């Protein structure tokens, strides 16, 4: 074999797959660091170490810690919105139960995942990109809830948008209560949310 021959460039698909895997590892490392020590105490070096690479290598994929969180939070938000929107044609009761199960019983309902979500919401106060993503997430969740109440036999509160505001406040408030209030657990939060929405929907 001629040692002077140029090294072959990996196929484009291979490079893309490798890049996607490294980005996934970086996202997971940030997630784990935030759960372990909080967002403000997490450094770029922490994330790089968790992803098994140097900080300079990590900066090839992201501009910094904030950029990682912004993109990761957007990805998580889009996935959740896609999942709650998948019941659009189901009966109202089924849509309410699906949302309650997804928010209070799904894989994102553990105490650690709730803590991660709250960290993201807190960071959005001072991060313009996160704030836009959070505002879009809020709006689309409320639109989904309003559509549920619009399809209900009757809306106990009289106005679908008002009902959506109340329901979304419960979604966020009960998740926070599970994290901070020792008297509140996920099962209780699930029951309160489900039963209240069914009552608002006159079911």
Automatic annotation (TrEMBL):
<dbReference type="InterPro" id="IPR009057">
    <property type="entry name" value="Homeodomain-like_sf"/>
</dbReference>
<keyword id="KW-0678">Repressor</keyword>
<dbReference type="Pfam" id="PF00440">
    <property type="entry name" value="TetR_N"/>
</dbReference>
<keyword id="KW-0804">Transcription</keyword>
<dbReference type="GO" id="GO:0000976">
    <property type="term" value="F:transcription cis-regulatory region binding"/>
</dbReference>
<keyword id="KW-0238">DNA-binding</keyword>
<protein>
    <recommendedName>
        <fullName>HTH tetR-type domain-containing protein</fullName>
    </recommendedName>
</protein>
<feature type="domain" description="HTH tetR-type">
    <location>
        <begin position="20"/>
        <end position="80"/>
    </location>
</feature>
<dbReference type="Pfam" id="PF13977">
    <property type="entry name" value="TetR_C_6"/>
</dbReference>
<dbReference type="InterPro" id="IPR001647">
    <property type="entry name" value="HTH_TetR"/>
</dbReference>
<feature type="region of interest" description="Disordered">
    <location>
        <begin position="1"/>
        <end position="21"/>
    </location>
</feature>
<dbReference type="InterPro" id="IPR050109">
    <property type="entry name" value="HTH-type_TetR-like_transc_reg"/>
</dbReference>
<dbReference type="InterPro" id="IPR036271">
    <property type="entry name" value="Tet_transcr_reg_TetR-rel_C_sf"/>
</dbReference>
<dbReference type="GO" id="GO:0003700">
    <property type="term" value="F:DNA-binding transcription factor activity"/>
</dbReference>
<feature type="DNA-binding region" description="H-T-H motif">
    <location>
        <begin position="43"/>
        <end position="62"/>
    </location>
</feature>
<keyword id="KW-0805">Transcription regulation</keyword>
<feature type="compositionally biased region" description="Polar residues">
    <location>
        <begin position="1"/>
        <end position="11"/>
    </location>
</feature>
<dbReference type="InterPro" id="IPR039538">
    <property type="entry name" value="BetI_C"/>
</dbReference>
């Amino acid at each position: 074999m001629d040692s002077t021959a140029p090294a072959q460039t990996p196929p484009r698909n291979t490079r893309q797959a490798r890049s996607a895997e490294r980005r996934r590892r970086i996202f997971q490392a940030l997630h784990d660091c935030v759960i372990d020590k909080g967002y403000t105490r997490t450094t770029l070096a922490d994330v790089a170490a968790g992803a098994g690479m140097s900080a300079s290598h990590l900066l090839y994929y992201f501009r910094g810690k904030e950029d990682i969180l912004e993109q990761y939070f957007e990805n998580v938000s889009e996935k959740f919105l896609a999942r709650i929107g998948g019941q659009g044609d189901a009966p109202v009761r089924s849509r309410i139960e699906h949302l309650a199960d997804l928010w209070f019983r799904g894989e994102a309902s553990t105490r650690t995942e709730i803590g991660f979500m709250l960290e993201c919401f807190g960071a959005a106060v001072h991060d313009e990109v996160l704030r836009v993503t959070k505002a879009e997430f809020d709006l689309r969740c409320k639109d989904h809830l309003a559509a549920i109440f619009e399809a209900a036999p009757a809306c106990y509160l009289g106005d679908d948008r008002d009902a959506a505001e109340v329901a979304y406040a419960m979604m966020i408030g009960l998740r926070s209560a599970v994290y901070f209030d020792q008297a509140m657990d996920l099962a209780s939060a699930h029951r309160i949310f489900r039963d209240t929405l069914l009552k608002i929907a006159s079911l």
